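Section 5.1 Outputs to date
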Amino acid sequence: MPVHVIDSLFFRDLYGSARMRAVFDDLNLLQKWLDYEAALARAESSLGLVPAEAAAEITRQAKAEHIDIDAIKRGVDETVHPLVALIWQLSERCADNAGRYVHWGATTQDVMDTALILQLKEAYPLFESGLDQVTETCADIARRHRDTLMTGRTHGQQALPITFGFKVAVWVAELKRHQERLAACKARVLVGEFGGAVGTLASVGAKGLAIQAKLMEELGLNVPPIAWHTARDHLAEFTSLLSMITATLGKISHEIILLQKSEFGEVEEPFEHGKVGSSTMPQKRNPMLCEAILTLARLTRVQTLSAIDAMMHEHERDWSSFQMEWAYLPEICVMTHGALELSLRVLRDLRVYPAAMARNLEITHGTLLAERVMLELGRFVGRQTAHDLIYEAAMESYEQNRPFADVLRQKPQVMAHLTAEQIDTLLNPADYVGLAGTFVDRVTASLNGS
């Protein structure tokens, strides 16, 4: 039985996705090793280093379904080496002595590194599609609620009116930057490896660069400028980006959790009859999907530390560092894609309650618009004097639980410059959202380049 949450029969769909798990399962990894060996034989054949018939036979046999998985496992246990058992078995399967050309000039880390990159190549479209869908879904929410008034909060306290569309547009802009980052690092990440024992390609001599180029063409990967056996910065960059993506998703989920609190009730993650919030409190409608996403954000950020640690190698190869990637990269990829899928599930059916938002605009008795009153009064008495006057009025309103407008009307220093009607107008939250709608338009329009 599985022992990790990403594979758990019970929890795996809260911590990952079936599609990303398939990218990193053992059978797919095995096929990627075989794909490398077959592509290497074909590349070397094209340059006369391996007979064409041998390359064709190696390619025919390099199928995961032909391989005895149990024998590979026994070989790993006996040799304490991840690949030699596969090389032996593939070589033995090849007819007409073609097996003698398997793995010609390569070292195990060439295969292991490139197989991992091939898995990331397969994972990349899933990340791109998932991020695109989450971003566009947020943009739809922002457009739909462009003018839906709500309270803006700083330091956890009511600050000034905003719109819900403005809040979500901030998310959209951040997600868009992640799209740009994902696109920008793709060429650096999807780079194959063929360097031989210490990276110099001494095993194939003058034909090394041509073989390397042909091999990467076969695999659809970029050609490395030099061996990266001990240079893992591109994997650390990619891992850091995945952690950033999940951090953004975690922030969005946390915001939904906060706004779903009973005292706010402004939004709610999707709810269907039958979803249970508590085993003992029947009334609970807990934001459990959002909590799962926030959990993933906290778990994946730890993997960035592993990626940075794995950059530190000794000499020309150091397995104690690069083997870390076999553990942390599949885990962060599965969890990040799981966070994207859960976020899409939440955002597509997010419940928004404008009436609750409007109600919460009024709970501070009008002090939400204190800045606006201060600035208007400041035109007559100066900003700092106005600040002091409005501060005292706001504190009185708060302490005595009285309407802010009533307190202001009883202040001679205020009424000397403002009328009762002006005060009522100044305390209208709908008239003090600044350029919120303009910013929503700007951000959402940028998604399609308009």
